[in-house]
Design brief:
Blueprint lengths: L9 H8 L6 H28 L4 H25 L1
Length: about 80
Amino acid sequence: MATTTITLSEKTKRELNQFSWVNWSEIARIAVLKEAKKQERFAHVEKILMKSTLNDEDVKKLADEASNRLAKRYQKKLRQS
């Protein structure tokens, strides 16, 4: 397994040392993996968008439609609870 080193301020290091039971390496590893997946998704979407023929008006219509559908879904859930 590869090793990566990060640099922290002394203040941050002292703050982390207050929680000696926390596996900070694991926390950092998970955060890095999560960010890497996010960047992969972003790159994938960007690749799709580069091939897209949608114009700004089409995008606005799609965004409005998605917002309306989400609003209806959450309103329905609120009524059910």
